[in-house]
Amino acid sequence: MAGVFITGEGIDCCGKSTQLELLENKLQDAGIKVAMFREPGGTSMCEEIRKLLLHKDEAENIAPWTECLLYTAARAQLVHEKAVPVLEQVDCLLIDRYRDSTEVYQGIARGLGAEEVILLTEITTGGFMPDLTFYFDIDFKTSRQRKINSGTKPDRLERQPDEFHKALIKGYRSLVKKYPERIVMIDGNQSIEDVHQSVLRVVNERFDFNL
């Protein structure tokens, strides 16, 4: 029997990666078999696509559809090579970003059209859907301040204009209303521990993990 598939979504510095790592650790401590991947990434091919999209000068003038197709290609490979087979072997699969990122970043913020991007994702992943998605909601100013505090160099997407990032927030919030049974919005402005407890409450309500 396949395990539970959970994804984390949100704008840069929303805390999703930290929260998924905390959830992974909690599951492991409880003796629950868990695997975690990130997007784009998770395989050698996908990590190369990640480097190109986020850190290579060649991607600075990338066309929106080229960007979309590369993200989608990385997802298709991750699903084929890792996600689907691994989900048959574990109790819980966690992925840091998934299909909602493409719907928001490329479909909405880039203006390619949500329905077109959704269709592309459906075709390339075979309709492989998460059971639960956490959207960690923070405002634009908080995201910017956290990035400054991190002291890390911003990647290509993080360097996009302010209006792009504001469109992402609006897009994600619209998805919460669009997919209410799957997406749960968590206030990412809380402390790390408070957010973690919020995540655990939802997981325990939805699944028989007793964390």
From TrEMBL:
Its EC number is 2.7.4.9. ATP binds at G10, I11, D12, C13, C14, G15, K16, S17. Gene3D superfamilies: P-loop containing nucleotide triphosphate hydrolases. The keyword Isomerase does not apply. GO terms for cellular component: cytosol. InterPro entries: P-loop_NTPase (IPR027417), Thymidylate_kin-like_dom (IPR039430), Thymidylate_kin_CS (IPR018095), Thymidylate_kinase (IPR018094). The keyword Oxidoreductase does not apply. It catalyses: dTMP + ATP = dTDP + ADP. Keywords: ATP-binding, Kinase, Nucleotide biosynthesis, Nucleotide-binding, Transferase. It holds the Pfam family Thymidylate_kin. Residues 9-199 form the Thymidylate kinase-like domain. Belongs to the thymidylate kinase family. Phosphorylation of dTMP to form dTDP in both de novo and salvage pathways of dTTP synthesis. This is Thymidylate kinase. It comes from candidate division WS5 bacterium. The gene is tmk.
